[in-house]
Each structure stands twice: as structure tokens, then as C-alpha cells.
Write a structure and sequence with these properties.
The chain is mainly α and about 150 residues long. It is about 80% helix and about 0% strand. Helix 2 crosses helix 8, helix 3 crosses helix 4 and helix 4 packs antiparallel against helix 5. The chain is flat. The N and C termini lie far apart (about 40 Å).
């Protein structure tokens, strides 16, 4: 009985870390998403040329779409607005990045997992999936808006 009481307290303390951790992940990786998206948008011709070299159809349109999703989606992650919703296209963009630009790392997911986890899209994808699964945490505009609508 004593062990279960101790473990229950431990879990309660650990639960307090969820929202600060989600805040740090959202702000840091949201900012990274926004910066990479902004870079794509500010260098649209070069990005489109790169996308074309990867065999992506309509490279300019897709460069604009990827840059826009990353830039706007990243900014929304930073402030914690529509976090779960925006994590879906962000994760999708990273899956496309794996399939096109980091296909070798994707194919090595089981036999060389370090190649998969060290590829550029990995942390972006991981954070997008974490926000989708766990939400933005208590320190977000999503939470503020939810609390406002629940009190009315």
C-alpha cells in the first residue's frame, strides 16, 4: 500500500511537467518550422528548383504550399492556436519530406534506425505527432479559448 501511495504522488508531480514540456517543444519547434517555411517562401525559385529535382510535381506550387504550411503552422504552434489541427498538415509535410528528400533514411527505418532518426524531418515530425496526440498543454491560446467557452 505504501508503494502505491508513493507512486501516486510521483505521478501527480510528473503530471505537472506535461504542460511546461509541451510549451517548450511547441515554442522551439514551432519557431523552427516557421523559420524553415519562411526560408522556403523567401527563396521560392530555389526551393521550387530543388523540389523539381526531387521529382515533385508542380514544384513551384508545392514549394509555396510547403513553405506556407511550415511558416503559418509553425507560428500557430508557437502561440498554441489550433495546435492539434495544424499539426496534421505539418506532419504530412514532414512525411512528404521523408518520402522525397530523405527516402534513403525512410527505407532504413528498421535496419538502420539511427539513419532515420538523424534525418532532418525526424524531430519536426515527432513534435507534430506529439502535439497531435497530447494537445498543446495548458500554456496555449487553445486552452484559454476552451476555458472561455466552457465558462459561458
Amino acid at each position: 500500500m505504501e508503494i502505491s501511495k508513493w507512486y501516486g504522488r510521483f505521478e501527480a508531480v510528473a503530471d505537472y511537467l506535461r504542460s511546461p514540456l509541451l510549451l517548450v517543444l511547441r515554442v522551439y519547434w514551432g519557431w523552427q518550422f516557421a523559420q524553415t517555411g519562411w526560408g522556403k517562401l523567401m527563396n521560392l525559385e530555389r526551393t521550387a528548383e530543388f523540389f523539381g529535382g526531387l521529382g515533385i510535381p508542380l514544384p513551384k506550387v508545392n514549394a509555396f504550399m510547403a513553405g506556407g504550411v511550415e511558416c503559418v503552422g509553425g507560428a500557430l504552434l508557437v502561440i498554441g492556436l489550433a495546435s492539434r489541427l495544424v499539426s496534421v498538415p505539418l506532419a504530412g509535410t514532414m512525411v512528404v519530406a521523408y518520402v522525397t528528400a530523405d527516402n534513403e533514411a525512410l527505407r532504413a527505418i528498421f535496419n538502420e534506425p539511427e539513419k532515420f532518426t538523424s534525418a532532418a524531418p525526424f524531430m519536426f515530425l515527432l513534435v507534430a505527432v506529439m502535439v497531435l496526440a497530447f494537445g498543446p498543454g495548458a500554456f496555449s491560446l487553445d486552452r484559454v479559448l476552451i476555458n472561455k467557452t466552457e465558462t459561458k
